[in-house]
Amino acid sequence: MSQKKLWIALGAVIMISFAVLLYYGSEIYQKAPPVPEQVVDKSGNILFTGQDIKDGQNVWQSIGGQEIGSIWGHGAYVAPDWTADYLHMEAQFLLNKWSQEDHGVVFEELHKNEKATLESRLQTFLRVNTYDEASNKLVIDRERYEAFLHIHDFYSKLFMNDPELKKLRADYAIAENTIRDTGRMEKMSQFFFWASWACVTERPGSDITYTHNWPPDEQIGNVATSDLVLWTGFSIFMLLLGIGIMIFVQARTKEEEILKPVADPLMNQVITPSMWGVKKYFWIVNIMILAQILLGVITAHYAVEGDGFYGIDISRFIPYSITRTWHLQLAIFWIATSWLATGLYIAPSLSGRDPKYQKAGVNVLFVALLIVVVGSLIGQWFGVMQRLSLIDNFWFGHQGYEYVDLGRFWQILLVIGLFLWLALMVRPILPIIRKGTSEKGLLIMFLIACAAIALFYSAGLMWGQTTNLAIAEYWRWWVVHLWVEGFFEVFATVVAAFLFVRLGLLGIKSATNNILFATIIFLSGGILGTFHHLYFTGTPTGVMAVGATFSALEVVPLVIIGFEAFHNYRLSTATPWIKDYKWPIYFLLSVAFWNFLGAGIFGFIINPPIALYYMQGLNTTPVHSHAALFGVYGMLGIGLMLFVLRSMYRKQKWNNKLISFTFWSLNIGLMLMLLLSLLPVGLMQTVASVKEGMWYARSAEFMQQPVVNVFKWLRTVGDTIFAIGSLTLFWFVYQLTIKKKREPNERNKKTYKDLEEKNDL
């Protein structure tokens, strides 16, 4: 296929995919679980208002939101899913109340037939939709309000400081006085009521709830639907079809020619002042990696000792919700920083000259980055510690949404910073594109990928303080899936190919065609695959149909990942001087491995609707997220950093033993972390979810079993090896950039000066 046709195909894929994405987004807006203006009893007495529910959502966000348990399966994994937990407690309260009224004994003492009768009554009682759209009121029975008061009393004791629940708080890693104000506590309970109501209430004209019968709990009538089975089967069919087509195309594709230049083209590359200014970005990257891993160790330990760290009570100062927030946020920050720094290094290298004020822009962006990182982390602490009003918390504290936890003010600053970075990328590259050189197509693709990184993070600004949770989740996954999983992948593909072109190992035309083809294939499933995160978040069935179909196609490009790995390995042996780039290329090889295992296998395990129905919110999810986020994007971030450092320090001998130890420690440690701990626990939880329900799989009763704790402790094996690898990485970069500090050689200085004078910069 010609390059022109590839560009047309790429444009068509993007336009059609986003049209469908936006169409179903409008459906979510229209069909999201309604937040009533008032919740009233049958006599018309106001029990609480819609504003109370919205305020309760803000209270939940302020304590960490999705970083302290989960709602609708999205969030942290130590505490319960509050919707599943609430529904179970509500069911038990009502069943026991009716049992005592009708039979004089608690529910568990009844005969099997009597239990079945009351459970049938319970399902009818809970599942009927009593929301009146005309009056915007939700009418509930007095008995249901009594259940709410009972559950609210329990949650008040849990989230505040009742000594009787001290052990349960530790099991759930909830700090004492997580909520200090009784008014706030009542509103959060009202929000939990609404979120749980949506899970058990059938949509108008349907026998399926707003969350498609999630969470699984047979007692309340939440069982897998026929749609779950149907679209799972269709997704597998699409996967097999896609694999067949992909293998056919791969077999017909002419293998990309590998060039073998006699010398390293980058040996004589001019290093401009702005390019040298990128070095400090990598110092920050390594500091953030160490901080992230330390916080990860503390966060993982909270699962076995919920109120301390080896006997030291740290929950009062740095609770679980904060350590997990910082752990996730720093991961995004350091990976993005590494990639942004790589772009800032590459752009001026094309011409060997800096546009006017390029170095100043690099420095300003660096300062802005530090402000956003430090400011957002501090703001989140103040929010979680309940030191901010709900409005101030939204702007400067903790928004409560996983991966986009930072306050709106810091979000806006980050968006501005990303567009500043985009401008710094465009300024040196655009003049080269205008010249119409052979690199034009590749550079256009490079800028498109850069623009996507800046643009799609902006989706995080699309929800407000009181936005319906279903709608907020839709936009959140634009950031998490489209930004992180989608266009990060495109950027990675383009940058990796571009580096090999710059090294003279790949031809420009073939590299451009291959990038376009790979992007088309990936985005064909990747954009609409966003919906596989939204099956059970108050969305209509069409979202499941589209999400299941296209998320299966996301896996298709990964079936030929072995070809990519082998191709990169051939590049690493193409010519004698390429051995200098052995370890950057080896990190790219590990990216291919983790892309197949983490994004492919571990991802597809949980993606089909019927699988995710039972697995959403279990430890099978962090298996995928750790393997994909660090294994793919983290390893790539390190690989790109090493490519840049190799280019910067061309005359300096590397400590190959140290970087080799780092490489194997990170990869082996990550693998052991998954196989010895997260995966076994996740599979045990899945069995419990199928047999008993989601509430039990996430309960302290299940998660604190001795056998489960054994697997939790086994995580220390992989974590320790992994942490050592991060320390040796830090030491390697320190030795290279600081301990043996080198300035640009005189020839490069002169060359840049000559260029500066020549071009009247």
SS class: mainly alpha
Poorly predicted ranges = 742-761
The largest β sheet comes out as: 4 strands, mixed
The global form is: globular
Major beta sheet, strand line-up: 2-1-6-5
Through-space gap between termini? 42 Å
Mean pLDDT: 90
Radius of gyration equals: 27 Å
Q: What is the number of strand segments?
A: 6
Share of residues in strands: under 5%
Give me the number of helical elements: 27
Helix proportion = 55-70%
What does this structure look like?
The chain is mainly alpha-helical and 761 residues long. Among the domains are: 35-223, no CATH class; 273-435. The chain contains 27 helices and 6 strands. It has helices spanning 3-31, 50-62, 82-103, 112-127, 142-159, 166-171, 182-200, 226-252, 273-277, 279-302, 320-349, 358-384, 390-396, 408-434, 440-457, 469-502, 508-526, 541-555, 561-572, 582-606, 609-615, 620-648, 656-691, 694-697, 700-703, 706-739, 746-759; strands spanning 38-40, 46-49, 70-71, 74-75, 131-132, 137-139. The chain has a 4-stranded mixed sheet with strand order 2-1-6-5. A two-stranded antiparallel sheet has the order 3-4. α2 (50-62) packs across α7 (182-200), α19 runs antiparallel to α20 (582-606) and α20 (582-606) packs parallel to α23 (656-691). It is globular and about 90 Å long.
